[in-house]
Design goal:
2 copies of one chain form a homodimer. With 108 residues, chain A is of the alpha+beta class. Chain A contains 6 helices and 3 strands. At the A-B interface, helix 1, helix 2 and helix 6 of A face helix 1, helix 2 and helix 6 of B. Chains A, B: This is Transcriptional regulator.
């Protein structure tokens, strides 16, 4: 396995994924497809509107999430996974498998 | 994919993995095998001794890491992944693959 030197791509990916709520959000977007802010708040139980907005901006800046704006009345804003973002699916699936296997440990 | 209800096994696994330094630590233990505290501090660049001790205790309490004590002179304490902990390898590998693919995005 690769060494993790501070700032290397692996370190940056780990830091990006290990931020609070990040994987929960990626999970909701991966399962739900393009989703509105309000719906994301419902899907990610416990996240505040302010934190959700900050997280979405940070993920957008990292090229992982896109934000689309439709000038309907009222305007429609949805968030979704970019092509880069969709590559996180593999990590989400491996975490899902792990969660199923860890259930006894996780519930003790 | 599973829904993530607060407190469900998937939520607990995500929270466990998304704590700061956690995946870095699991990475070092997975690559290095049973390792002493001082060596772990060297392998996980930037972590403080205090945070490392707290993290190891929390991972030990979750059944992911074991702590072995040898009454040598001086005494020898090493930390390693339990059987449950070794199951995290699959997640680490998928993150490694992702990091290699995300390099352009991660470095922008």
């Amino acid at each position: 396995m690769l060494e993790i030197a501070k700032g290397c791509p692996l370190d940056r990916t780990l830091r990006l994924l290990s931020g609070e709520w990040t994987v929960h959000l990626l999970w909701a977007l991966s399962s739900n497809g393009p989703t509105r802010h309000g719906e994301l708040r419902r899907l990610v139980e416990g996240i505040s509107s302010k934190v959700l907005t900050q997280k979405l901006r940070a993920l957008e800046a990292s090229g992982i999430v896109f934000r689309s704006y439709e000038a309907t009345v009222p305007p429609k804003v949805t968030y979704g996974l970019t092509e880069q973002g969709q590559k996180v699916d593999r990590v989400l699936r491996s975490i899902e498998e792990l969660a199923v296997e860890w259930q006894p440990a996780a519930s003790s």
